[in-house]
Amino acid sequence: MSSEAPLTTTTTVKTEAEPPSGVNLERKARKEAAKLLKAQQSADKKKAAAAKATTASSSCSSKSTSKDKNPRKPQSPTEQLSRALAYILRHGAEKEGLSIRSNGYVQLDHVLERPRVKSVNMLAETETQAKGAKRRPNVQDVQQVTQANDKKRFQVMQDEDRVWWIRAVQGHSLKSIAVEHTPLTLNNLHLLKLNHSEKDDEDEDEDEDDALAGEINSKLNLTTDQEQQQMVEVIHGTYQAAWQEILSSGGLKPMTRTHIHLAKGKFGQQGVISGMRKSANRLIFVDIKKAINDGVRFELSSNGVVLTPGADESGLLEVKYFTRVEDQNGQIVWQPSSQNPSE
């Protein structure tokens, strides 16, 4: 019996042919070009970063120079004291560990002991003032601030035990405070009437304001059935950027405070001492009669600010009560019919 010879398998490995020398040179050239490009890009980035840093430094220097040329006017001791009182009485009494009554009154001597108030130096800066001399605020200083405050933000009183108390008239963010205000109804909207005097009529510089005040007053003197149908407006002062947010959100809200603040007229008109900031550049006119008819509650503070918490459920004073919006120059920038005529 013959045996078969074992089979042998031969594996042939195919190897790629070496690329021609011309191909190697091309690859090498590409690598060199890529390295050069990467180096150039890195150099460009460093150059751009250096230029940006130089520009930023120049900008900061320019801003610093601008600030140096127009430094912010330092606050007087009276202004510092007024701001300290406003914060404590409107927002910070509880944080400061002070006992505050439901009507907003805080014992004055306790307020005077708070660091925020004690730190105010009532000695004005003068050349003759001794270096380091200080005087803390006292009751007389607070009384002076209360009387001199152009917006009549504070009230002071002395009880039967001759103890002095102080409160902010409005503007609270403390939910536990319920300062007594005059409820506004359809029957007492004459309380919104702007003050008017013969002396003002003789002042040519105020002719325009007086004419507007007279127009508003004529609307508020509700003596006939026809006049009772006329619109009565109050004004909320805000700013252009905030106005866009108000419009998109559907109306005004109290935000961190307990009320939305409105004024009886434009800032500076007779009888308008508070209710909006002087710098407001968007004035929202609100039909208060329409809102009251819909059940929205309004009150009038002792310093003439019209207050509302908004609608009971939503806390919103809706856009449907807005009659128009004016800019700081009296130009109408929004009306319900056209929605947005100039913005």
UniProtKB/TrEMBL annotation:
One Pfam family recorded for the sequence: PTS_2-RNA
Record has Lipid biosynthesis as a keyword: no
Name the UniProt record assigns to this protein: 2'-phosphotransferase
Keyword vocabulary terms for this entry: NAD, Transferase
Domain of life: Eukaryota
Enzyme Commission no: 2.7.1.160
Family named by the database record: Belongs to the KptA/TPT1 family.
First-tier enzyme category under EC: transferase
Segments of skewed composition (Low complexity): 50-64
